[in-house]
Amino acid sequence: MSKSLTNRLLLAKWWKLIAILLMIYTFAAGLLMPVPRLDILNETIRNAYFHVPMWFGMMLILLFSLIYSIKYLSTGNLRYDYVAIEAAKVGVLYGLLGLTTGMIWAQYTWGAWWNGDPKQNMAAIAMLMYLAYIVLRGSISDQDQRAKVSAVYNIFAFVALFPLLYIVPRLTDSLHPSNGGNQGFVAYDMDGWMRLVFYPAIIGWTFLGLWIASLNVRATYLEEGLDIEAN
């Protein structure tokens, strides 16, 4: 019997090599290639290669977690639950790194680490919501019940991300690009050189996150005495 898609992804090496190459490229080109000389932003615009792709990566990794929660609910296979939680943990890590890089950027461009901007507040709430997901799992001892409750919570948490991150900030005054009536960042700040780094950075950060999650899944399989090559 052929290996399942999950196990093939865990064992495959091609996308991990791509992750390494793209991350090297992101850091090297992101720090050395020319960037637009814009008022206020100046050299801080290079943070676009880190802060923004991390958020894209977070959303894609949390989507990956959501898919595996749904797969668990439809099959009852605990392997899918393990993938869902490890992907969610990496998504939270990316979210916290995104908040941190955003705070650094805000200090240089807005004059304060945290100024109550709606985008910042909603992002913080979203991360607290996912941290609650991780805490919830730890509070339930029965394995099957923990997996079912966590999967349902994960679905609702992902659905809640969209109003928190993409709807509410657009309806209020905000300094953040693409919110509060402001133009989107890519629309007016990026030139062709930046796009050559920005889009590969999204792929690189996403693949790196999935790689970290896959290592954690393999560690969980070992702890549970599961064969990673089995279906």
Structure description:
This protein has 231 residues and is mainly α. The protein has one domain (5-223). Helix content is 72%, strand content 0%. The chain is built from 8 helices and no strands. The chain has helices at residues 5-11, 14-32, 51-75, 78-109, 118-138, 143-167, 185-189, 192-223. 34% of the residues are buried. The mean pLDDT is 84.
Largest sheet report: none
Q: What is the helix content?
A: over 70%
Structural class: mainly alpha
Order of helices and strands: HHHHHHHH
Shape: globular
Q: How many domain modules?
A: 1
Give the termini separation: 8 Å
Name the features:
231 residues; mainly alpha; 8 helices; 72% helix; globular
Explain briefly what this protein structure is:
The mean pLDDT is 84. The chain is mostly helical and 231 residues long. 72% of the residues lie in helices and 0% in strands.
Task: Spell out the blueprint of helices and strands.
Elements: H1 5-11, H2 14-32, H3 51-75, H4 78-109, H5 118-138, H6 143-167, H7 185-189, H8 192-223
Helix pairs in contact: 2-8, 3-4, 3-6, 3-8, 4-5, 4-6, 4-8, 5-6
